[in-house]
Amino acid sequence: MMNNLLIMPLLVPLVTAVVLIFFNRQIRLQKWISGLSALANVGVAGYLVHVVRQEGIQTLNMGGWAAPYGIVFVADMFAALLVLTTTIVSAACLYYAFGSIGKEREKFYFYPFFQFLIVGVIGSFLTGDIFNLFVCFEVMLISSYALIVLGGTKKQLRESLKYILINIISSALFVASVAYLYAVVGTLNMAHLSVRVAEAGQGGVLTTISVLFLIVFGLKAGLFLYFWLPGSYKVPPAAITAVFGGLLTKVGLYAIIRTFTLIFYHDPYITHTLIGWLAAATMLLGVIGAIAYWDIHRILIYNIVAAVGFIAFGLAAANQAALEGAIYYLVHDMIVKALLFLLGGTIIAYTGTATIKEMGGLMRTRPVLGWMFFIAAMALVGVPPLSGFIGKLLIVEGGLQAGFYWITGIGLLTSLLILYSMMRIFMNVFWGVPKRPLSEPKKGTGWLLLPASCLVILTIVLGLGAEWIYPYVNQAGETLLNPDQYIQAVLKE
Amino acid sequence: MEILMAFAIGILFMVGTYLILSRSLLRIILGTSLLTHAVHLLLLTMSRLKTGAAPLLGEKAGNYVDPLPQALILTSIVISFGVTSFFFVLAYRAYQELGTDDMEQLRGHDDE
C-alpha cells in the first residue's frame, strides 16, 4: 500500500526543528511549539500503527522512483510500534527537559537538536534502504554529538571526544560493509537485498559481511561492544541521558533485528549462535557493572547494557515466541529505561548527589517519587503484572524452544542480579534516615514528576493490557518471521 | 587498476588506524579523516572501475559507469566533512578548556 502518511512522523519533528531555529531567542515560544509538536507526533504515530494494523505493511517510494531503484520507506508493524514508542518516550523526556534543562542549554538550540535527534531515530525505523539507514543514523548521531557536549563542562568535553571518535569509526565501517554488500549483490534496497541474498545463497562471503554489519550495529547498540557507553552516557543532564538510554541503543538493536530477520537469516548456525553468545556476554558483563557501582547513573547505564543483551538473545533464538518477546521487551525497555533515568535525575535533583551511599530516607519526604521508582524497578525486573514480565516470559520460552539452555539460564540469572541492583538503589535511597541535609528543591521541580508518571502508567497498562496489545506484537513478529510479506509489500506494486 | 586501488585503500586504512591509535587528538582526527577517505575509495572500487565512461548518458548510452556508488560517496563525503569539522572545533574547545590534547590524560576517573 502506498501511503504518504508514512513520512509524517518524520516530517513533524523536522519541520518543528527548522521552525525552532528561527525562534532562538523566545524560549517560552520554543517550549510551546516543541511541546505541541511532540504531542501531535504521538497522535500521528498512533494513527500509523492503526493503519498498519488495518491494511498491512505501508510503503512510500520517495520522489516516485519505483522500489529497488529509489529510496523506499516501509512501515511494518515492528517499525510502526517502535515509532509510536519513540514519540511517547521523546515527548516525556521533552516535557521533563522543560523543567530541568536550564536556560544555558535552551539558549544554545537544545530544542532544535532534540527534534533533529528524533528525526534521525524515526527515520532509521522507517527506512527500507540500507544506505538511507546510514544517513538516518548520521542525522541521529550528529544531533547526539551536539546534545552530549551542550553545556560544555569539562567532563562533557572529555567524554564527547571519545563518543564521537567511536561513532566515526563505526560509521566508516558501516559504509565499508555497505560497499562490500553492494559489490556482492548489487542492490541497497532491503527487500531487494533479501531476495538477492536468498537467490545467491548465503555463502561464506555474505556471512562474513553479515558479521561486519553485526559489529557495526553492535557498536551502536552496545551489544558486547559497549565499552564507550558508560562514560559518555553519564555526562549529559538527566533529560538527555534518558532519551539516549531509551532510544539510541535501541536503534542499533532495531538495525540488528531487521538485517538478521530480513536479509541474513539463511545461516543461523553461524550468525545467530554468535549473536546468542554475544548477548550472553553482554548480559553478564552489564549486570556485573550494575552491581559494582554506587553511582545511581552508572547503575542505570549498566542496566541498559544488560537489557540490550537480553533483547539480542530473543533475536538469536529466532522463533515466534522469542521474536515476539524481543519486540515486546524492546518497547517495554524503551519506556522503562527513559523512566528510570528521569526518576534518577529527579532523585539527584532532590538529594544533590549521585552516590547512593550518601542518600537515604527519601521515602519520608518524597513518597510519590519512591513508589514510582519502585514500580519502575519492578517493571524493569519483570515482576508480573508489569510490562517487563510478558516480554521476558516469551523470550525465555523461545530460548528454551530453540535449545539455548545455557544462555536462557544466564538470562534468568541476570534478571535476579538486576533485581538486586535495583533494590540496592531503592533501599539506599528511600529507606533509612537522610545522611545529609536534603537540598531545598528549586521552585517548579514538582512537575518534573508529571512526564515520569505518564510513563509509569504506560508500563502498568503495557503489563495489564497485554491481552489487548498482543495482537499488534503478534503481527509484528509474524512479519519478522516471514520476510516474504515485507518483500511483497515493497517490490510487488 | 582494481589491484592498485586495493593497495591504495589498504595503505590508507593502515595509516588511518595507526594515527587513530596515537595519543595526540589532532592525529586521531586526521586518522579518522583518512579512514573515511579509504572507505570512499573502497565504495568506488567495489562497483568496478571503468576508465573513460560517464555515469549516465541517457537511456541508450553504450558504455557507462554505475552512478549509484558515486551518489553514495557524495552523501558520505558531505557527512564526513561536517563531522570532521565539528570534531576539530570540539577538539580545539576541549584543548582550551582542559589544557591538553593527550588522550592518556583525558582518561577520566570513576569517582567524579
TrEMBL record, chain B:
<keyword id="KW-0812">Transmembrane</keyword>
<keyword id="KW-0472">Membrane</keyword>
<dbReference type="Pfam" id="PF00420">
    <property type="entry name" value="Oxidored_q2"/>
</dbReference>
<comment type="similarity">
    <text>Belongs to the CPA3 antiporters (TC 2.A.63) subunit C family.</text>
</comment>
<feature type="transmembrane region" description="Helical">
    <location>
        <begin position="28"/>
        <end position="49"/>
    </location>
</feature>
<feature type="transmembrane region" description="Helical">
    <location>
        <begin position="69"/>
        <end position="92"/>
    </location>
</feature>
<dbReference type="InterPro" id="IPR050601">
    <property type="entry name" value="CPA3_antiporter_subunitC"/>
</dbReference>
<dbReference type="GO" id="GO:0005886">
    <property type="term" value="C:plasma membrane"/>
</dbReference>
<dbReference type="InterPro" id="IPR039428">
    <property type="entry name" value="NUOK/Mnh_C1-like"/>
</dbReference>
<feature type="transmembrane region" description="Helical">
    <location>
        <begin position="6"/>
        <end position="21"/>
    </location>
</feature>
<keyword id="KW-1003">Cell membrane</keyword>
<keyword id="KW-1133">Transmembrane helix</keyword>
<protein>
    <submittedName>
        <fullName>Na(+)/H(+) antiporter subunit C</fullName>
    </submittedName>
</protein>
